[in-house]
Each structure stands twice: as C-alpha cells, then as structure tokens.
C-alpha cells in the first residue's frame, strides 16, 4: 500500500499555514489601502486648515491686491509662518490669474502656477491629491467687500509606501505571528482529532482499505447484504444483488421497498439466523445473519447467503433414490413372503391353492405394470410410481394412478424434476393418510404442449395451514429430531415448479389436493 510522504498532521499544518498566509496578505493589503485613504483624508484636512488660515490672515488680505511678485516681504513672512506652524511643505500666495506672488519655492515666484484642480470655480475652496505623493488645498483670498483678490495654496507631502510599510511592519509581524501560532495549534489539534476518529490511519491508507474492501466484497461468490437498525440496505455486493434479485440502486433504500417477500424480510431482519433455507424466486438460498455491534450497541446486521438450489435438488434426488431402495427392499421382503406362502402350500399338498395364489400375485403385478407403463412412458417416473405402490402397500394404503394420466417420454432435466415433485407429494400424501379410515392416494399426471401437471389427492384430514405458510421453508406439520430435517419438501416442490415457469397450489376436497405444474422448458434465472 502506498504511503503519503506527508502525514495527515503535516498536510493540515501546511494547508492551515497557506490559509493563514492568504488571510494575512489579504487583510494586510486591505488594511494598508484603508490606512492610506485615512492618511490622505487627515492630510487633506490639515492642508485645508492651513490654507484657510493663510487666506484669512489680515495682512494677506490687505497686501495681496497691490503686491508685486517677490516684492512683498510681509507676504512671504506670513506664508512661511503658516507653513512652519502647520507642518506643511509648501505655502503659496497667488493672484486670481495664478501668478505667484510669494512661495516656499522661490523659483515659482513671478510665474503662473499650473492649475491641477478639477473644474472648480476660482472663488471656491478645493483640496485633493496632486502630482507626486502629495495633497494640496487652495482657498480664495477675499477683500472686505468679498471680491476675489488672490488664492492661498498649501501642499503637504504624504509618506512613501516604504515608509508606511516600515511604520506598519511591527504590528503586521505581530498579527502574522499570532495568526501562525493559532493556525499551527489549531491544525495540530484538528489533525489529532481526525486521527483518533480514523484509528490513526492516514488518508491514503483509508482510501487503500476502502478499495481493498470493495475488491474483496465484490470478488467473493457468496452474497453479502448489510442493513442498519432502520432496515435500510447499507452494503450489497454483486452476488447478493443477483441472488436476491435486487435493483442496482438498492443501497440506501429500505428493505420493505425492495422486496415484498415476507419470509425474506423476516430472515434478513430477525435475530441471529444460522443456515436458514429461504426460497427466493427460482433459487433456494442458505442465509446466515449476525448482528453488527459497535461499542456494545447494535448498529445493524450482516447476512451472508449461498445458492443451494442445485445442491438441495441433488439431496432430494438422493433421498428419493434412498426411499426407492427402501421400497425395493420392501418388495424383496414381500416376494420372500410370497415364496414362503407358496412353499407352505406345496408342503401341505395344496397344489390347486398354490396355483391360484401364484396366478393372483402375477395378475396383480402384471396389471400394475401394465397400467403404469401404458400411461407413463417416461421410465424414471414409471419406476417411481411402481416403487411407491409397494411402499403404500407396506403401509396399508392404496396408490391409484388416474385413468386420465398420460405422459410421454420427457427430457432428462424435466424427468428429474418430475421425480422430485411426484416423490415429495406422494410421500406427504402417504404420511397424511396414516391415521385415516380409508388410506387412499390418487395420482394423476397429464401434459399439454407447454407443461406437465401433477395432481395428488389423498383421503387424509386435509390441510389446516394457509398455502403460503405450507410452502414456506422450514415449516412442517411433522416433528423431526434433526434440525432442518423437515419442512423443505414442499418448499422444494414450489421452487422446482417456479423454476420451470409453473407453480404449485393446494386445496381441500375430502382430503388435500396438491396440483403442481411444470413447464417443459426451464425458465432462466
């Protein structure tokens, strides 16, 4: 796994310092500009005040109308006094035509002064920036009658940018140092808090773990689905979505919104489930559910699932073969009894009775084989029915194949599925008639162009449970000492039927009547 060259704390520190630097720079620039504007306003007020003092001086008002450029020492003295007292840099007295009469810059005396004012009447005061880093204020000089006789001008130099930075640098350094210290402390505390919440992992390590988890989750064949306490799907891998037939956007949605199957919802939301078989569409799934805890509190659950469809079908096929073997043993026992009977009759020299007994047994067997093979052309199904007849006889019951039965030879897959369905339904029917006065099981197999229909009618007490509960995985009306040993025969029958595009139903009619329909073509999962 690649590691970052810089730790999480270092990344936070660098980011914080960059942010602090940007903030300090922005604030410094804005503060510097604001300070410059404030300084200019202050200097404007000072320049305007000095110019007003100069223009309002009685000596200036009296001498300006008749003064010659450079020829009035009192005017020059008054101007220099005002400049010195106000701390200004330049003081100028001019005629209305801007001819300089007295100035702190002797070279300007006698020459017209450049008018750098905006369009402002000569009889009005003005203050503002001028060429260079300076501000100037001009105030009209009026005689006693209020007539314009001259103009007083005062200029003040503004501090240079370097000077202003030099003045502001101590405070700026304090601000930068304080902001940097706060940023370093804050970023260190934030990094420690984040590392505690991420169990000490760096961001690249967290990203690597997430990628690794996603690869593992979607790479396994078993389905995995996780729910939170509210029943919302929080995690689902590809196998789980396929097995449960859920949409691609299932993560984040409530389970009740994704499936209407109450058995599946119960299996995914009830307490810890171990190796529970659930029929989901055409599949038989084994579910294992465990609660997920964090700091002692349950925060959800995770369920793993495996597809047991083919395995369970194989188990039922083997079980059918085992029962068939048992039936053949019963037939062997029955034949042995017949031979003993014949031997006894011969020893008693009851030869006519022995002949009649042999003819009766032979006639019964021939009739049974003829009836079955004439109506059922598929050998596995015919063999199963003959074997079940012997099993019924051993239990004191009678198995009858309806005259309407007619099934031609079918393909191997359908034949295997029919053996599973017929075997389970007949076994259940024989169990149901065990305590009935008349122990009769009627079987009818018919076919059309699209499907084969199996109908099994017993003379038992009938079915009390609902059809949905009866075909539910794990439900059984018979006890069993083995966990999971019963309750899956009818569920498997329904699974096989639905996988072939059909279904199974049950109703009562002087006993239970099961009707299963299997399509001749298996439906793709």
UniProtKB/TrEMBL annotation:
Enzyme class: transferase
GO molecular function: ATP binding; phosphorelay response regulator activity; phosphorelay sensor kinase activity; protein kinase activator activity
Location of the protein in the cell: Cell membrane
Catalytic reaction annotation: ATP + protein L-histidine = ADP + protein N-phospho-L-histidine
Gene Ontology biological-process annotations: osmosensory signaling via phosphorelay pathway
A single cellular component GO annotation: plasma membrane
InterPro entries named in the record: BphY/WalK/GraS-like (IPR050351), HATPase_C_sf (IPR036890), HATPase_dom (IPR003594), His_kinase_dom (IPR005467), PAS (IPR000014), PAS-like_dom_sf (IPR035965), PAS_4 (IPR013656), sCache_3 (IPR033463)
Membrane topology: Multi-pass membrane protein
Domain Histidine kinase: 418-522
Keyword annotations: ATP-binding, Cell membrane, Kinase, Membrane, Nucleotide-binding, Phosphoprotein, Transferase, Transmembrane, Transmembrane helix, Two-component regulatory system
EC number: 2.7.13.3
Name this protein carries in UniProt: Sensor-like histidine kinase SenX3
Organism from which the protein derives: Georgenia soli
């Amino acid at each position: 796994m690649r590691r970052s060259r810089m730790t999480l704390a270092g990344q936070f520190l660098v980011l914080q310092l960059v942010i602090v630097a940007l903030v300090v720079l922005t604030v410094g620039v804005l503060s510097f500009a604001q300070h410059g504007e404030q300084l200019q306003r202050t200097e404007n007020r000072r320049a305007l005040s000095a110019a007003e003092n100069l223009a309002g001086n009685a000596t200036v008002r009296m001498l300006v109308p008749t003064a010659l450029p450079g020829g009035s020492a009192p005017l020059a003295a008054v101007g220099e006094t005002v400049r010195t007292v106000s701390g200004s840099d330049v003081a100028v007295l001019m005629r209305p035509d801007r001819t300089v009469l007295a100035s702190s810059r002797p070279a300007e005396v006698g020459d017209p002064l450049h008018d750098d004012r905006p369009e402002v009447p000569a009889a009005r005061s003005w203050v503002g920036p001028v060429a260079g880093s300076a501000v100037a204020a001009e105030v009209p000089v009026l005689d006693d009658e209020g007539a314009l006789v001259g103009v007083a001008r005062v200029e003040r130099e503004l501090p240079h940018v370097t000077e202003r930075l030099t003045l502001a640098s101590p405070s700026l350094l304090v601000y930068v140092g304080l902001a940097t210290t706060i940023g370093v402390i804050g970023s260190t505390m934030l990094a420690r808090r984040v590392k505690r919440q991420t169990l000490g992992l760096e961001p690249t390590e967290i990203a690597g773990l997430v990628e690794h988890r996603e690869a593992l989750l979607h790479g396994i064949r078993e389905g995995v689905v996780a729910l939170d306490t509210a029943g919302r799907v929080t995690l689902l891998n590809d196998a789980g979505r396929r097995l449960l037939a859920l949409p691609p956007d299932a993560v984040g949605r409530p389970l009740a919104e994704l499936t209407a199957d109450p058995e599946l919802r119960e299996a995914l939301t009830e307490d810890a489930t171990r190796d529970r078989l659930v029929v989901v569409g055409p599949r038989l799934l084994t579910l294992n559910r465990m609660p997920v805890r964090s700091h002692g509190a349950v925060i959800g659950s995770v369920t793993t699932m495996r597809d047991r469809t083919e395995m369970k079908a194989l188990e039922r096929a083997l079980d059918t073969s085992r029962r068939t073997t048992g039936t053949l043993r019963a037939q062997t026992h029955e034949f042995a009894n017949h031979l003993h009977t014949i031997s006894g009759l011969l020893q008693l020299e009851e030869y006519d009775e022995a002949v009649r007994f042999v003819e009766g047994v032979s006639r019964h067997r021939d009739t049974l084989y003829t009836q079955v093979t004439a109506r059922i052309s598929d050998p596995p199904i015919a063999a199963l029915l003959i074997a079940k007849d012997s099993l019924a006889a051993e239990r004191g019951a009678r198995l009858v194949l309806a005259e309407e039965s007619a099934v031609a030879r079918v393909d191997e897959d359908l034949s295997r599925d029919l053996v599973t369905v017929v075997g389970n339904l007949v076994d259940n029917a024989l169990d149901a008639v065990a305590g009935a006065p008349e122990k009769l099981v009627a079987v009818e197999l018919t076919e059309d162009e699209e499907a084969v229909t199996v109908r099994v009618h017993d003379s038992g007490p009938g079915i009390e449970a609902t059809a949905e509960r009866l075909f539910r995985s794990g439900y059984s009306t018979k006890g069993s000492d083995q966990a999971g040993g019963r309750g899956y025969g009818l569920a498997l029958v329904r699974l096989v039927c639905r996988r072939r595009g059909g279904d199974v139903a049950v109703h009562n009619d002087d006993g239970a009547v099961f009707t299963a329909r299997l399509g001749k073509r298996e439906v793709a999962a």
